[in-house]
Amino acid sequence: MSTDLFDLSGRVALVTGATGRLGREMTRALAGAGARTWAVARDEGRLADLAGEVDCVPLRCDVTDDADVAALAGEVRATGGRLDVLVHNAHVGRGGSLASTTAADFAEATDLALGAFARLLAATKDLLRRAAGDGSPCVITVASMYGLVAPRLDLYDSAASRNPPHYGAAKAGLLQLSRYAAVELAPLGIRVNSITPGPFPGGGDPAFLARLARQVPLGRVGAPPEIATALLFLASPRSSFVTGANVVVDGGWTAW
């Protein structure tokens, strides 16, 4: 894919949850557009694998840990002093229902979506402000269609395999926090937007995938590269007048 329109040469990007299914593609897209791209995740082995495939800077960090996030910002500060693109994509995937979900599940999901976002912003705001002097720095949060609509329970084989309530609730909160941050950071020249992916499953039961596809107006599930164009648009100065927006990439799932 040509990235000339969304050229990020000379810019610095950071992706949390970089070793996940969509995180890998986001890291690949930003690096391919010319950005010096920090790939952030908790698993050092998976980070090493990613760095073997993509021209990125791997860095282990638990975004729910204050000290880790401070160290992360310090690394970026020491090696360039600016941050043009911050992508908050970290999440934990597991199934569940209201009956099986605990208060601890809600706390974990909320801290990973909202608490981590707040930590990252606090730690990197000076780096983003520095980039505002000669660019259009952007923070991009990755939400979910289940932050907009409830799961179709009949798509799942069991309650244990459903998309759990704590996940959607946390992603809905992330969308609202992103809008709030967009308004507060706009005077500093920092834009904040969201991407809401639809069904981008990482393989699995063919019968389940077929049921998902039937729910999508376009008649299929998404492929990871299809998230890249939305990401690059928001990450580049081409979207310099876009903030507080949510770009839905779901094949029409939420249009029903």
From TrEMBL:
<dbReference type="InterPro" id="IPR036291">
    <property type="entry name" value="NAD(P)-bd_dom_sf"/>
</dbReference>
<comment type="similarity">
    <text>Belongs to the short-chain dehydrogenases/reductases (SDR) family.</text>
</comment>
<dbReference type="Pfam" id="PF13561">
    <property type="entry name" value="adh_short_C2"/>
</dbReference>
<protein>
    <submittedName>
        <fullName>SDR family oxidoreductase</fullName>
    </submittedName>
</protein>
<dbReference type="InterPro" id="IPR002347">
    <property type="entry name" value="SDR_fam"/>
</dbReference>
